[in-house]
């Protein structure tokens, strides 16, 4: 077995930290031995963000979810291409006719990386931990989980039975999601602080955490003896790569330069304007669109003026989505046609309701009383300018030019969109300001409707900022969760999409895409159903 010398990785880290990488250079000729043998080698992955919190029930950043995916397993595997739910740690399962009782058969012989068994008793404890949290440690229940009446296990039969208090249609989808990854007792027993660091997550996955130097690198090593991948996969047994070295590099130009110069193998977050240059340098550019919520602007009705439906509808028709794609993006991106992407369960094409129609926008604004125009060309009413506040989304690498183009489009209607910026540390706090009129949202998810319910139900996060609940919307979210057939649920989530667009609670912009740059010697890079990196099949020619 041959692993890339550690001194080269350390040197790369130092160069990244100092910003001294060779930006703009063509990828050099590979110096390592080129091999078609899949086993062995190291991959250097430059992520755009720092790890921030890996505690399963409370974390949520993209980078942390991707890391967790590679060091853990889940009860159910979701095929990235078809969305089909397939066996994984659960070799089979049954659901009672009333949708209340789920019984899972657990694969024999699985162990966590600390050597402890992943058996029925361990699965029971994980599901109870997800369902109820750990109040003493300040760990919440997983808000993606249903209300659970009981979890029991049968050691002899290696089965786990979950009884719900009410039907919960998304439950199997949720059990395929990174947030419900299975972890060892040592993780569940650990402090909140320990769980919040990647070194505190002990899973059964194809990789393990070898080391972490916070803010500098995380090293994942191949799990020796791993042999319980989803049986539907052609690849079985251990991962091919010996190690993955993840280096957080927040500066776009440094990530790009390191990839072009050959100092890294894979990067995430590429500006659309950089895609052609990378491809010309021999880099493979891959755009992955996960199922789930689109890149959408939530309209916060706590803010001035947008509690008026005519103003919200004027915004909906005043955004030229095709111009945004044509001017700012590439063929890896496409215009949003609903609140969810086309591969999402229950998707309804509402492109006709999202058509760009500035004449209709102007009519709606006139009807809303915004008929005066000030010296700067902005609409006014009762001496007030039609002014909306937003902040550039720190989690979207393409957000700033997108926001600026929408700002320009809205100015033509006489709407002033003020754009401010902040950093990762303060972003969530600033968005709590009720004066923020619109905020970007949208992530690929295991079940888009669970995420929407958490975000938009007035009894939960209430991200639309309702002063008074929209009982129709809340009722639809509640009804889809307890639907007992796919047909019934699809009809309900279709109504959710129509209602949100009709009321202009959300302004869909584009279908979200994760874009990666990959060296040509890296093969079979894969992602999950939600477009998170999964390195189990990945291999390198350089040993």
TrEMBL record:
<dbReference type="GO" id="GO:1904680">
    <property type="term" value="F:peptide transmembrane transporter activity"/>
</dbReference>
<feature type="domain" description="Solute-binding protein family 5">
    <location>
        <begin position="85"/>
        <end position="448"/>
    </location>
</feature>
<keyword id="KW-0732">Signal</keyword>
<keyword id="KW-0813">Transport</keyword>
<dbReference type="GO" id="GO:0015833">
    <property type="term" value="P:peptide transport"/>
</dbReference>
<dbReference type="GO" id="GO:0043190">
    <property type="term" value="C:ATP-binding cassette (ABC) transporter complex"/>
</dbReference>
<comment type="similarity">
    <text>Belongs to the bacterial solute-binding protein 5 family.</text>
</comment>
<dbReference type="InterPro" id="IPR000914">
    <property type="entry name" value="SBP_5_dom"/>
</dbReference>
<dbReference type="InterPro" id="IPR030678">
    <property type="entry name" value="Peptide/Ni-bd"/>
</dbReference>
<dbReference type="GO" id="GO:0042597">
    <property type="term" value="C:periplasmic space"/>
</dbReference>
<feature type="signal peptide">
    <location>
        <begin position="1"/>
        <end position="26"/>
    </location>
</feature>
<dbReference type="InterPro" id="IPR039424">
    <property type="entry name" value="SBP_5"/>
</dbReference>
<protein>
    <submittedName>
        <fullName>Peptide/nickel transport system substrate-binding protein</fullName>
    </submittedName>
</protein>
<dbReference type="Pfam" id="PF00496">
    <property type="entry name" value="SBP_bac_5"/>
</dbReference>
């Amino acid at each position: 077995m041959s692993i890339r010398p550690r001194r080269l990785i350390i040197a790369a880290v130092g160069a990244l930290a100092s910003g001294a990488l060779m930006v703009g250079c063509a990828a050099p000729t590979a110096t390592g031995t080129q091999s078609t043998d899949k086993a062995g080698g190291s991959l250097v992955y430059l992520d755009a963000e720092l790890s921030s919190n890996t505690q399963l029930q409370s974390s949520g950043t993209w980078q942390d979810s991707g890391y967790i995916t590679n060091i853990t397993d889940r009860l159910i595997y979701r095929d990235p291409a078809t969305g089909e739910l397939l066996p994984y740690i659960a070799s089979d399962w049954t659901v009672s006719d009333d949708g209340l009782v789920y019984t899972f058969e657990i694969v024999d012989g699985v162990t966590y990386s600390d050597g402890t068994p992943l058996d029925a008793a361990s699965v029971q404890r994980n599901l109870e931990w997800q369902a109820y949290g750990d109040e003493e440690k300040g760990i919440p229940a997983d808000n993606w989980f249903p209300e659970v009446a009981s979890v029991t296990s049968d050691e002899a039969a290696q089965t786990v039975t979950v009884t719900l208090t009410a039907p919960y249609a998304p439950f199997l989808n949720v059990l395929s999601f990174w947030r419900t990854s299975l972890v060892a007792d040592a993780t569940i027993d650990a402090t909140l602080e320990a769980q919040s660091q990647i070194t505190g997550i002990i899973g059964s996955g194809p990789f393990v955490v070898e080391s972490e130097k916070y803010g500098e690198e995380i090293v994942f090593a191949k799990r020796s003896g791993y042999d319980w991948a989803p049986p539907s996969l052609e690849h079985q047994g251990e991962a091919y790569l010996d190690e993955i070295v993840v280096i957080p590099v927040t500066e776009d130009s440094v990530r790009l330069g390191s990839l072009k110069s050959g100092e890294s193998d894979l990067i995430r977050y590429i500006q659309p304007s950089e895609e052609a240059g990378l491809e010309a340098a021999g880099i493979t550019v891959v755009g992955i669109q996960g199922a789930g919520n689109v890149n959408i602007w939530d309209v916060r009705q706590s803010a001035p003026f947008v509690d008026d439906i005519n103003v919200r509808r004027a915004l909906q028709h005043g955004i030229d989505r095709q111009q945004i794609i044509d001017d700012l993006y590439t063929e890896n991106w496409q215009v949003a046609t609903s609140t969810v992407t086309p591969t999402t369960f229950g998707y309804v094409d509402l492109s006709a309701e999202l058509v760009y129609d500035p004449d209709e926008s102007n009519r709606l604004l006139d009807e809303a009383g915004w008929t005066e125009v000030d010296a700067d060309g902005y609409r006014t009413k009762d001496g007030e300018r039609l002014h909306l506040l937003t902040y550039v989304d720190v989690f979207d690498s393409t957000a700033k030019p997108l926001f600026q183009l929408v700002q320009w489009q809205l100015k033509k209607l006489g709407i002033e969109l003020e754009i401010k910026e902040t950093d990762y540390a303060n972003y969530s706090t600033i968005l709590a300001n009720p004066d923020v009129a619109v905020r970007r949202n949208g992530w690929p998810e295991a079940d888009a409707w669970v995420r929407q319910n958490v975000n938009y139900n007035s009894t939960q996060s209430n991200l639309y900022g309702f002063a008074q609940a929209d009982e129709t919307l809340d009722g639809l979210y509640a009804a889809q969760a307890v639907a007992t057939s796919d047909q019934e649920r699809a009809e309900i989530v279709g109504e959710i999409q129509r209602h949100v667009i009709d009321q202009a609670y959300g302004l869909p912009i584009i279908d979200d895409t994760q874009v990666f740059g990959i060296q040509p010697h890296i093969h079979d890079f894969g992602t999950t159903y939600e477009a998170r990196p999964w390195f189990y099949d990945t291999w390198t020619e350089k040993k």
